[in-house]
């Protein structure tokens, strides 16, 4: 790679870390950048290299959230442990399932998320008490730790956003609490997928670690910004990011 492309990728990695720490979706920023910068790179290697940067950024964001806000570990702990296995299973199938199969479905889900959030101005911003019955906790653990984690291993774009919406809808969390819990889950999904990609030799370690350093800076700043600005700010960023993801997926699909 020419040094100009490396500089751009490092800058994109930092931006992806910020976005991912606030509302998720960093993979949809960084993976296309890798594919553009390295046009001959196999998609599975782009996914694997992205995971190196992503797991570092999400870990820093998770630690930042855990230090400054209360996390329900009865939900985050089991779901993260389950996510490691399910994300690994998704990564094992990543090279066998064309990404084109996922794009239309993901676009529909993102549009549904956008319509739901826009139609309910108080969703994730004004909440009474979190709803944490054992049935809802179980549903959140299973949905986040299996379905969404498997999707993250296979394809990934929008995983953090889907986790935030799931925790907000099922447990009545505000967006900041949901984002904090989502980061714990993201560490598990990234770890499971990275182990599989690394074992298969689908990681560019030098580039991945360089991007990881920048991703960490962006993630740390993003988590602090979300905690400082509150749920209303996260809601605005969520809407902007979802619109951007829909547009980006549409351009790839069309």
Automatic annotation (TrEMBL):
Keywords, alphabetical: Cell membrane, Membrane, Transmembrane, Transmembrane helix, Transport
Name this polypeptide is given: Probable membrane transporter protein
PANTHER family for this protein: MEMBRANE TRANSPORTER PROTEIN YFCA-RELATED, TRANSMEMBRANE PROTEIN YFCA
Membrane-spanning parts: 45-63, 75-95, 101-119, 140-171, 191-218, 230-250
Database matches in InterPro entries: TM_pro_TauE-like, TSUP
Predominant subcellular localization, coarse grouping: membrane
Family assignment from sequence similarity: Belongs to the 4-toluene sulfonate uptake permease (TSUP) (TC 2.A.102) family.
Localization, UniProt: Cell membrane
Topology class, membrane: Multi-pass membrane protein
Keyword Cell membrane: yes
């Amino acid at each position: 790679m020419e040094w100009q492309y490396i500089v751009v990728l490092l800058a994109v990695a930092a931006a992806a870390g910020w976005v991912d720490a606030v509302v998720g979706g960093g993979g949809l920023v960084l993976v296309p950048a890798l594919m553009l910068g390295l046009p001959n790179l196999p998609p599975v290697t782009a996914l694997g290299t992205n995971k190196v940067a992503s797991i570092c950024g999400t870990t820093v964001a998770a630690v930042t959230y855990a230090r400054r806000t209360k996390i329900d570990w009865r939900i985050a702990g089991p779901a993260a442990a389950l996510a490691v296995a399910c994300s690994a299973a998704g990564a094992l199938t990543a090279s066998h399932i064309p990404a084109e199969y996922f794009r239309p479905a993901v676009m529909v889900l993102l549009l549904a998320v956008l319509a739901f959030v826009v139609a309910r101005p108080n969703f994730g911003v004004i909440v009474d008490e979190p709803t944490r019955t054992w049935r809802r906790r179980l549903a959140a653990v299973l949905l986040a730790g299996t379905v969404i984690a498997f999707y993250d291993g296979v394809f990934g774009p929008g995983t953090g956003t889907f986790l935030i919406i799931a925790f907000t809808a099922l447990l009545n969390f505000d967006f900041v609490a949901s984002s904090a819990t989502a980061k714990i889950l993201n560490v598990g999904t990234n770890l499971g997928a990275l182990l599989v990609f690394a074992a298969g030799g689908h990681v560019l370690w030098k580039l991945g670690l360089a991007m990881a350093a920048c991703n960490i800076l962006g993630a740390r700043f993003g988590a602090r910004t979300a905690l400082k600005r509150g749920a209303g700010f996260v809601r605005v960023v969520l809407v902007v990011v979802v619109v951007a993801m829909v547009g980006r997926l549409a351009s790839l699909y069309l």
